C-alpha cells in the first residue's frame, strides 16, 4: 500500500512557473476540467483535525467519473489514498450518503499534468482561488511523509519562481474563503 505525498503552492507568476518547468524538461498535458465534490464523515466539521479521518471525493473529468477516498496520515497532504472509476456519479453520491458521508465543498479546476523525475506536477487554475502548483510522489505506507515533502519543497524552491507554500487542501481553502 502507498501513500500520496504532496506539496502545494499558490502561484504568483504562472508564465514564469511554466517556463521554469519547461527548462527542467517537464512537459505538461493540455488543460482538462475537473469537477470535484468533496465529502466528509457525518459529524466532522472544518476546523477539526483531518488526521486519521477518511474523506471522499467524486470527480468528473471528460465525461468519466472517479471515486477517491483519502485518509490524512501526518498532515492534510500526506494521505493513504484509494481511487476507482465509477459508472454513475449520482449513484455513487447516494452510496456515500448512505455510508455516512456528507457533501462539503465543490471544487472546479482546470488542470495540466506532467512528470518531473519521480514526481507528478499539477498546474491548477482553481475557480475562486487562483493558480496553484502541486508536486506529488507516492511512498510506501510507513515512509516519512514529512521528509518527502521537504525533498519536494526543495525541488519547487529550485525553480526560482514566486510561490507561497500552502498546507491545506483546496476544499479547506475554499471553505475558508481564501481567494
UniProtKB/TrEMBL annotation:
This is Adenylate cyclase. Residues 2-176 form the CYTH domain. It comes from the Bacteria. PROSITE patterns: CYTH (PS51707). Gene3D superfamilies: Hypothetical Protein Pfu-838710-001.
Amino acid at each position: 500500500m502507498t501513500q500520496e505525498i504532496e506539496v502545494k503552492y499558490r502561484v504568483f507568476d504562472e508564465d514564469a512557473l511554466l517556463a521554469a518547468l519547461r527548462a527542467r524538461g517537464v512537459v505538461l498535458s493540455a488543460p482538462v476540467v475537473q469537477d470535484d465534490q468533496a465529502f466528509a464523515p457525518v459529524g466532522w466539521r472544518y476546523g477539526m483535525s483531518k488526521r486519521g479521518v477518511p474523506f471522499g471525493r467524486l470527480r468528473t473529468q471528460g465525461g468519466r467519473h472517479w471515486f477517491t477516498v483519502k485518509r490524512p496520515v501526518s498532515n492534510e497532504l500526506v494521505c493513504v489514498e484509494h481511487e476507482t472509476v465509477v459508472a454513475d456519479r449520482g449513484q455513487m453520491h447516494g452510496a456515500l450518503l448512505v455510508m455516512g458521508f456528507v457533501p462539503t465543498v465543490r471544487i472546479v479546476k482546470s488542470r495540466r499534468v506532467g512528470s518531473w523525475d519521480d514526481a507528478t506536477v499539477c498546474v491548477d487554475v482553481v475557480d475562486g482561488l487562483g493558480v496553484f502548483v502541486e508536486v506529488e510522489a507516492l511512498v510506501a505506507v510507513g515512509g516519512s511523509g514529512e521528509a518527502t515533502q521537504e525533498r519536494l519543497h526543495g525541488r519547487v524552491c529550485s525553480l526560482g519562481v514566486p510561490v507561497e507554500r500552502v498546507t491545506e487542501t483546496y476544499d479547506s481553502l475554499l471553505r475558508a474563503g481564501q481567494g
